[in-house]
Amino acid sequence: MSKTHWKRLINPDYLGAYSLEVGQDMNVTIDHVRRDMVTGVGGKEEECTIAYLKGQKPLILNNTNSKSIAKLYGPYIEDWAGKPITLFATTTKLAGETVECLRVRPVVSKAVKPQLSDERLDAAIGKIKEGSYTREKLLQQFALTKPQMEKLNAETAAPVQA
Question: Counting runs of H as helices and runs of E as strands, what totals does the chain give?
């Protein structure tokens, strides 16, 4: 059974270490990168560099992750569009504390189907049920985790003919 990390409730609009299961990698493709205003905890606004990803929530890029992507694809953010990266959760020291963080693996990932968030899976299942989307198209476009596949099968299985 999938559990919900408490941080998903605080900043549900962006990916973070809390977006991954322990030991799980997430292969994603960068759609584009730009600077945008982000409203943080407590309503504080800050301009951040954000990688908008295909089929996933955006990723706020810190210097460490920006440098990792630059080592893979060069320093120009325009060249990052369409490029695959692999994200993983780890920990780092921040102000004397060990905190969770999301990092970019320092190797070019194979072009793979993007992961699908649970929220987007729920929306896709709704579209399948109403007939405007198909299971086949979903499986062609996205990589599903085992729990997501089980949910898809349970909620969209064709009725058994008696």
Answer: 4, 5
Query: In this structure, how many other beta carbons lie within 10 angstroms of the beta carbon of residue 13?
Result: 9
Distance CA 35, CA 105 (A): 22
Which pLDDT value is given to residue 29?
92
- What value does the mean pLDDT of the chain take? 86
Average pLDDT over residues 68-87: 95
How far apart are alpha carbons 61 and 114 in whole angstroms?
Answer: 19
Q: Residues of 70-97 as b/e, b for ≥16 C-beta within 10 angstroms?
A: eebbeeebeebeebbbbbebeeeeeeee
DSSP 23-57: T-EEEEEEEEEEEEEEE-GGG-EEEEEEEEETTS-
Kindly state the helix (H) or strand (E) to which residue 76 belongs, with its residue range: none
Q: What is the 3-state secondary structure (H, E, C) of 107-141?
A: CCCCCCCCECCHHHHHHHHHHHHHCCCCHHHHHHH
Span of 1-10, 19-28, 79-88 with lowest mean pLDDT = 1-10
DSSP state of 161: P
